[in-house]
Amino acid sequence: MGDGRAKTGTRQGIRLLRTRLEIKIHALLEKYFPERRVFLKSDNDTRFIRLRPATQLIAFAGSSFVVAWAIVATAILLMDSIGAGNFREQAKRDQRTYQARLNDLAGQRDARAEEALAAQQRFNAALEQISVMQSELLASETRRRELETGIEVIQTTLRDTMQEREAARSQVAALEQQGDGETALAAAGGGAPMDFVAEALAQTAAERDQVVEDAQTALLAADEMATQIALMKEQNDQIFRQLEEAMTVSVAPLDKMFRAAGMPTDRIIEQVRRGYSGQGGPLTPLSFSTRGEEPSPDTLRANRILNQMDKLNLYRIAAQKAPFATPVKDAFRFTSSFGFRRDPKTGGRRMHKGVDFAASLGTPLYATADGVVTHAGWQSGYGRLVKIQHEFGIETRYAHLSRLRVKVGQKVSRGDRIGDMGASGRVTGVHLHYEVRVGGKAVNPMIYIKAANDVF
Questions:
Q1: Residue 393 per-residue DSSP state
Q2: What is the pTM of this model?
Q3: DSSP β-bridge partners for residue 399
Q4: Tens-place pLDDT, residues 24-74
Q5: Residue 15 burial by CB count (10 A; 0-12/13-18/19+): exposed, middle or buried?
Q6: In a designed cystine with 421, which of 113, 258, 363, 446 is the match (CB 3.0 to 4.6 A)?
Q7: Where are the domains of the chain?
Q8: Between helices 192-260 and 53-189, what is the axis angle to 10°?
Q9: 221 CB contacts (<8 Å, ≥6 apart)?
Q10: Phi-psi region of 332 (alpha: psi -120 to 50; beta: other; left: phi over 0)
Q11: Regarding the domain with residue range 325-455, which homologous superfamily does it belong to in the CATH classification?
Q12: Among 347, 298, 288, which residue's Cα sits nearest to residue 137?
């Protein structure tokens, strides 16, 4: 019973404390928010609304919150507007800088194209000169062999003449001995034998003089031929030097181009040689002697040059089969490079497996190397897509086309038109997405394009 009274007393104390606290709070609110009445009067009745201090406090707090929120929101909008203006200005400045850089790159590209055209013309002129020099070399080699054969004939004739001269001298000596005996007989019996001996001696002397004259003529002819052979050897050496220099100037840049593209030159040359294994023609190596003699230094030198010419020709064939060309020949600009970038659709970071060329709708697109079309149709994301399979395990892709101009299975050569630039598939504008894949793995196409620009 005592516990019940204690609990009741405690509850009464709490209520009393709560009542006093409420009274103090109400008095404090009355001080700042006294009770107000809002009268509403009509034609027949008058009513009022009583605004208690707590109600006024709630209304004041709500109004303060709304005003504060409006001030903060306005400040945020102003700051965002100012920041957006600055960002737009910065974006415009960046765009102008980027456009100037693109124009500069376009100028450099045009200059490189002109240099490549000039280099190609020089290369073709060098090939023509090499062909002419090769013809002259073969003609001079044939002439040299004819002269060597002529010298051998003259030397044989000279040896025969010398032998005949020695025989004539022996006959003269024998006749002179016979002449001494017959002189005594002539003194005893007559002069006829002496006339015969004199005539024979005169004829022998004439033949001897003719043999000596022929020998001197042959020696002069041999000296003249030796001089001509020396001149021809000097001329051949000059031709060899020019050919060797031309080969060095022609082969070294091509070798550098393939190595810059990361392509093993030895394996590529061997693969091309297997595909073009026919023999014969002007580049056939000079044949060695069939008499068991060692080949001459000129023959070895000529064969080295012909081997270099063969290597140059194989490089030319390989260059046609690798994507060293640019798929767009009209005016364009690069809009995206190979590598990770911000996705234009989602805004996330994503791997870009090619390079983008932007130009007008319908710009002609060309194959960058010889090959076979393995795909010509629609593919998700790529839009209208052309795939070309090339030698050495290389594949090129041309995406977002507006029109296809090739079919599956069609063989194409470098420079053949394969389609038109468009905006099909997953794009934000008109452009060409160009890929190069080696063994199914995407590589940077600019490796090949820059390697060719450095040479051509």
A1: G
A2: 0.45
A3: 433
A4: 777 777 777 777 777 777 777 777 677 777 787 788 888 889 999 999 988
A5: exposed
A6: 363
A7: 1-28, 33-100, 126-285+295-321, 325-455
A8: 170
A9: 154
A10: beta
A11: Glucose Permease (Domain IIA) (2.70.70.10)
A12: 298
